[in-house]
Write a structure and sequence with these properties.
239 residues, alpha/beta, Rossmann fold, 7 strands, Short-chain dehydrogenase reductase SDR, SDR, NAD(P)-bd_dom_sf
Length: 239
Protein backbone atom coordinates (compact mmCIF):
# COMPACT_ATOMS: atom_id res chain seq x y z
CA UNK A 1 0.00 0.00 0.00
CA UNK A 2 3.02 2.33 0.34
CA UNK A 3 2.72 3.44 -3.29
CA UNK A 4 -0.91 4.53 -2.77
CA UNK A 5 -1.33 8.08 -1.48
CA UNK A 6 -3.77 8.99 1.30
CA UNK A 7 -4.49 12.72 1.12
CA UNK A 8 -5.87 14.48 4.22
CA UNK A 9 -7.10 18.09 4.11
CA UNK A 10 -6.35 20.30 7.12
CA UNK A 11 -3.79 17.85 8.44
CA UNK A 12 -1.58 20.27 10.36
CA UNK A 13 -3.57 20.16 13.62
CA UNK A 14 -6.56 18.70 15.43
CA UNK A 15 -8.39 15.70 14.02
CA UNK A 16 -6.58 15.89 10.66
CA UNK A 17 -3.17 15.62 12.32
CA UNK A 18 -4.33 12.70 14.48
CA UNK A 19 -5.54 10.89 11.35
CA UNK A 20 -2.23 11.59 9.58
CA UNK A 21 -0.21 10.26 12.54
CA UNK A 22 -2.39 7.17 12.88
CA UNK A 23 -2.33 6.28 9.19
CA UNK A 24 1.42 6.96 8.85
CA UNK A 25 1.89 4.63 11.83
CA UNK A 26 -0.13 2.01 9.98
CA UNK A 27 2.37 2.24 7.09
CA UNK A 28 0.22 4.40 4.82
CA UNK A 29 1.79 6.93 2.45
CA UNK A 30 0.27 10.10 3.90
CA UNK A 31 0.11 13.59 2.37
CA UNK A 32 -1.57 16.42 4.29
CA UNK A 33 -2.78 19.77 3.01
CA UNK A 34 -1.91 22.93 4.93
CA UNK A 35 -3.10 26.44 4.19
CA UNK A 36 0.35 27.96 4.78
CA UNK A 37 3.95 26.79 4.70
CA UNK A 38 4.58 25.20 8.11
CA UNK A 39 7.48 26.21 10.36
CA UNK A 40 10.68 24.19 9.79
CA UNK A 41 10.37 22.46 13.19
CA UNK A 42 6.87 21.18 12.37
CA UNK A 43 7.92 20.10 8.88
CA UNK A 44 10.84 18.17 10.40
CA UNK A 45 8.50 16.44 12.89
CA UNK A 46 6.12 15.43 10.07
CA UNK A 47 9.03 14.32 7.90
CA UNK A 48 10.25 12.06 10.72
CA UNK A 49 6.86 10.31 10.55
CA UNK A 50 7.05 10.08 6.75
CA UNK A 51 4.20 12.59 6.30
CA UNK A 52 4.41 14.84 3.21
CA UNK A 53 2.74 18.24 2.84
CA UNK A 54 1.10 20.18 0.01
CA UNK A 55 0.01 23.80 0.45
CA UNK A 56 -3.32 25.28 -0.61
CA UNK A 57 -6.85 26.33 0.24
CA UNK A 58 -9.73 23.90 -0.37
CA UNK A 59 -12.16 26.74 -1.12
CA UNK A 60 -10.36 27.48 -4.39
CA UNK A 61 -11.19 24.96 -7.12
CA UNK A 62 -7.91 25.42 -9.02
CA UNK A 63 -5.86 25.12 -5.83
CA UNK A 64 -7.75 21.96 -4.87
CA UNK A 65 -7.00 20.39 -8.25
CA UNK A 66 -3.34 21.45 -7.93
CA UNK A 67 -3.10 19.98 -4.41
CA UNK A 68 -4.37 16.62 -5.69
CA UNK A 69 -1.80 16.80 -8.51
CA UNK A 70 0.99 17.72 -6.06
CA UNK A 71 0.01 14.89 -3.73
CA UNK A 72 0.27 12.43 -6.61
CA UNK A 73 3.99 13.28 -6.91
CA UNK A 74 4.41 11.24 -3.73
CA UNK A 75 2.89 7.98 -4.97
CA UNK A 76 1.57 5.90 -7.84
CA UNK A 77 -2.17 6.05 -7.18
CA UNK A 78 -4.72 7.71 -4.90
CA UNK A 79 -5.76 5.27 -2.19
CA UNK A 80 -7.76 7.71 -0.06
CA UNK A 81 -9.00 11.27 0.30
CA UNK A 82 -10.06 12.50 3.72
CA UNK A 83 -12.08 15.72 3.55
CA UNK A 84 -11.32 16.94 7.04
CA UNK A 85 -10.73 20.71 6.65
CA UNK A 86 -13.50 22.65 8.33
CA UNK A 87 -14.41 25.85 10.15
CA UNK A 88 -17.25 27.12 12.29
CA UNK A 89 -18.65 30.63 12.81
CA UNK A 90 -21.39 30.14 15.36
CA UNK A 91 -24.20 32.61 15.95
CA UNK A 92 -27.94 32.43 16.39
CA UNK A 93 -29.68 32.26 13.02
CA UNK A 94 -31.31 35.67 13.37
CA UNK A 95 -27.92 37.28 14.01
CA UNK A 96 -25.90 35.29 11.48
CA UNK A 97 -24.47 37.30 8.60
CA UNK A 98 -24.75 36.01 5.05
CA UNK A 99 -20.96 36.28 4.91
CA UNK A 100 -20.55 33.87 7.85
CA UNK A 101 -23.13 31.51 6.39
CA UNK A 102 -21.36 31.45 3.03
CA UNK A 103 -17.84 31.16 4.48
CA UNK A 104 -18.71 28.00 6.39
CA UNK A 105 -20.52 26.46 3.41
CA UNK A 106 -17.61 27.38 1.14
CA UNK A 107 -15.01 25.61 3.31
CA UNK A 108 -16.94 22.64 4.70
CA UNK A 109 -19.05 21.74 1.67
CA UNK A 110 -17.71 23.42 -1.49
CA UNK A 111 -14.16 22.65 -0.31
CA UNK A 112 -15.03 18.96 -0.07
CA UNK A 113 -16.59 19.08 -3.55
CA UNK A 114 -13.47 20.81 -4.93
CA UNK A 115 -11.22 18.07 -3.54
CA UNK A 116 -13.52 15.13 -4.26
CA UNK A 117 -14.04 15.93 -7.94
CA UNK A 118 -10.42 15.41 -9.11
CA UNK A 119 -9.97 12.59 -6.57
CA UNK A 120 -13.05 10.74 -7.83
CA UNK A 121 -11.83 11.03 -11.43
CA UNK A 122 -8.54 9.37 -10.47
CA UNK A 123 -10.20 6.72 -8.33
CA UNK A 124 -12.72 5.80 -11.01
CA UNK A 125 -9.84 5.27 -13.45
CA UNK A 126 -7.97 3.17 -10.88
CA UNK A 127 -11.14 1.27 -10.03
CA UNK A 128 -10.43 1.66 -6.33
CA UNK A 129 -10.28 4.30 -3.64
CA UNK A 130 -11.96 5.55 -0.50
CA UNK A 131 -13.24 9.06 0.21
CA UNK A 132 -13.99 9.88 3.84
CA UNK A 133 -15.79 13.09 4.82
CA UNK A 134 -15.60 14.64 8.28
CA UNK A 135 -19.22 15.54 8.96
CA UNK A 136 -20.65 16.12 12.44
CA UNK A 137 -23.59 14.98 14.55
CA UNK A 138 -25.08 18.45 14.05
CA UNK A 139 -25.43 17.63 10.34
CA UNK A 140 -27.90 14.97 11.51
CA UNK A 141 -29.61 16.86 14.32
CA UNK A 142 -29.22 20.59 13.66
CA UNK A 143 -27.95 22.77 16.51
CA UNK A 144 -28.74 26.10 18.11
CA UNK A 145 -26.24 28.69 16.88
CA UNK A 146 -24.93 26.55 14.04
CA UNK A 147 -27.25 27.08 11.05
CA UNK A 148 -24.25 27.44 8.72
CA UNK A 149 -22.22 24.59 10.20
CA UNK A 150 -25.16 22.16 10.45
CA UNK A 151 -26.26 22.94 6.89
CA UNK A 152 -22.71 22.41 5.61
CA UNK A 153 -22.38 19.05 7.36
CA UNK A 154 -25.85 17.88 6.25
CA UNK A 155 -24.87 18.87 2.71
CA UNK A 156 -21.63 16.94 3.08
CA UNK A 157 -23.61 13.82 3.93
CA UNK A 158 -25.65 14.27 0.72
CA UNK A 159 -22.43 14.73 -1.26
CA UNK A 160 -20.95 11.62 0.38
CA UNK A 161 -23.97 9.45 -0.53
CA UNK A 162 -23.95 10.68 -4.12
CA UNK A 163 -20.24 9.90 -4.51
CA UNK A 164 -20.93 6.43 -3.08
CA UNK A 165 -23.61 5.88 -5.76
CA UNK A 166 -21.63 7.37 -8.66
CA UNK A 167 -18.35 5.70 -7.64
CA UNK A 168 -19.75 2.32 -6.61
CA UNK A 169 -19.64 0.76 -10.05
CA UNK A 170 -15.90 1.38 -10.18
CA UNK A 171 -15.20 0.25 -6.61
CA UNK A 172 -14.85 3.76 -5.17
CA UNK A 173 -16.24 4.00 -1.65
CA UNK A 174 -17.45 7.12 0.13
CA UNK A 175 -18.40 7.42 3.80
CA UNK A 176 -18.76 10.06 6.48
CA UNK A 177 -17.74 10.26 10.10
CA UNK A 178 -20.04 12.25 12.39
CA UNK A 179 -18.14 13.13 15.56
CA UNK A 180 -19.82 14.66 18.57
CA UNK A 181 -17.41 16.72 20.68
CA UNK A 182 -13.68 16.21 20.14
CA UNK A 183 -10.77 17.74 22.08
CA UNK A 184 -9.32 20.19 19.54
CA UNK A 185 -8.84 23.95 19.08
CA UNK A 186 -12.40 24.11 17.70
CA UNK A 187 -13.96 22.98 20.98
CA UNK A 188 -11.29 24.67 23.14
CA UNK A 189 -12.77 27.95 21.94
CA UNK A 190 -16.04 27.19 23.80
CA UNK A 191 -16.61 28.78 27.21
CA UNK A 192 -16.29 26.55 30.30
CA UNK A 193 -20.01 27.02 30.91
CA UNK A 194 -20.90 25.74 27.43
CA UNK A 195 -18.49 22.81 27.76
CA UNK A 196 -20.03 21.81 31.09
CA UNK A 197 -23.56 22.00 29.64
CA UNK A 198 -22.56 19.77 26.72
CA UNK A 199 -20.69 17.32 28.96
CA UNK A 200 -23.85 16.88 31.01
CA UNK A 201 -25.57 15.60 27.83
CA UNK A 202 -22.85 13.08 26.90
CA UNK A 203 -23.35 9.63 28.49
CA UNK A 204 -19.58 8.99 28.23
CA UNK A 205 -19.04 12.21 30.28
CA UNK A 206 -16.03 13.27 28.21
CA UNK A 207 -15.10 14.61 24.80
CA UNK A 208 -13.47 12.26 22.27
CA UNK A 209 -9.72 12.19 21.75
CA UNK A 210 -8.77 12.98 18.14
CA UNK A 211 -7.10 9.53 17.97
CA UNK A 212 -10.52 7.92 18.52
CA UNK A 213 -11.80 9.62 15.35
CA UNK A 214 -8.64 8.50 13.52
CA UNK A 215 -9.47 4.92 14.52
CA UNK A 216 -12.79 5.03 12.66
CA UNK A 217 -11.07 6.67 9.71
CA UNK A 218 -8.56 3.81 9.48
CA UNK A 219 -11.45 1.34 9.50
CA UNK A 220 -13.26 3.16 6.68
CA UNK A 221 -10.09 3.37 4.61
CA UNK A 222 -9.50 -0.36 4.83
CA UNK A 223 -12.92 -2.01 4.86
CA UNK A 224 -13.94 -2.71 1.27
CA UNK A 225 -17.70 -3.15 1.61
CA UNK A 226 -18.91 -0.26 3.77
CA UNK A 227 -20.04 2.60 1.55
CA UNK A 228 -22.57 5.44 1.70
CA UNK A 229 -22.63 5.34 5.51
CA UNK A 230 -22.41 7.88 8.30
CA UNK A 231 -20.54 6.52 11.32
CA UNK A 232 -21.44 8.47 14.44
CA UNK A 233 -18.81 8.64 17.17
CA UNK A 234 -20.17 10.83 19.96
CA UNK A 235 -19.98 9.04 23.34
CA UNK A 236 -23.76 8.69 23.15
CA UNK A 237 -24.51 12.43 22.78
CA UNK A 238 -27.25 11.89 20.19
CA UNK A 239 -28.92 8.95 21.94
P1 LIG B 1 -9.38 22.54 13.83
O1 LIG B 1 -9.96 23.89 13.90
O2 LIG B 1 -8.51 22.06 14.95
O3 LIG B 1 -8.58 22.33 12.44
C1 LIG B 1 -9.19 22.65 11.25
C2 LIG B 1 -8.25 22.33 10.11
O4 LIG B 1 -8.88 22.68 8.87
C3 LIG B 1 -6.95 23.14 10.19
O5 LIG B 1 -5.89 22.35 9.71
C4 LIG B 1 -7.25 24.29 9.22
O6 LIG B 1 -6.09 24.91 8.71
C5 LIG B 1 -8.00 23.53 8.14
N1 LIG B 1 -8.73 24.44 7.26
C6 LIG B 1 -9.69 25.33 7.59
N2 LIG B 1 -10.10 26.01 6.52
C7 LIG B 1 -9.39 25.53 5.47
C8 LIG B 1 -9.35 25.83 4.08
N3 LIG B 1 -10.12 26.78 3.55
N4 LIG B 1 -8.49 25.15 3.29
C9 LIG B 1 -7.69 24.20 3.81
N5 LIG B 1 -7.67 23.88 5.12
C10 LIG B 1 -8.51 24.54 5.94
O7 LIG B 1 -10.63 21.57 13.65
P2 LIG B 1 -10.89 20.08 14.15
O8 LIG B 1 -9.66 19.27 14.05
O9 LIG B 1 -11.62 20.16 15.42
O10 LIG B 1 -11.95 19.61 13.05
C11 LIG B 1 -11.60 18.88 11.89
C12 LIG B 1 -12.90 18.51 11.18
O11 LIG B 1 -13.74 17.77 12.07
C13 LIG B 1 -13.70 19.74 10.73
O12 LIG B 1 -14.30 19.47 9.50
C14 LIG B 1 -14.75 19.86 11.81
O13 LIG B 1 -15.89 20.51 11.34
C15 LIG B 1 -15.01 18.40 12.14
N6 LIG B 1 -15.60 18.18 13.46
C16 LIG B 1 -14.95 18.59 14.60
C17 LIG B 1 -15.54 18.37 15.84
C18 LIG B 1 -14.88 18.78 17.12
O14 LIG B 1 -15.51 18.61 18.18
N7 LIG B 1 -13.66 19.27 17.12
C19 LIG B 1 -16.85 17.71 15.96
C20 LIG B 1 -17.43 17.32 14.69
C21 LIG B 1 -16.81 17.55 13.50
P3 LIG B 1 -5.37 26.13 9.52
O15 LIG B 1 -4.52 25.46 10.59
O16 LIG B 1 -4.59 26.84 8.48
O17 LIG B 1 -6.46 26.98 10.12
Amino acid sequence: MADGVVLITGGNRGIGLAIAERLAGDGENVVITTRHELPESQLAALDALGIHTVVGDVTDEAEAQRMVNDAMKHGEWLRGLINNAGINRDKLMTRMSTEDFNAVLQTNLVGAFNMSKPALKLMQKQRQGSIIHMASVVGLTGNVGQANYAASKAGLIGLMKTIAKEGGLRQVRSNAIAPGMVETDMTDALSDKTKEAILAEIPAKRFAKPAEIADVCAFLLNNEYVTGQVITIDGGLTL
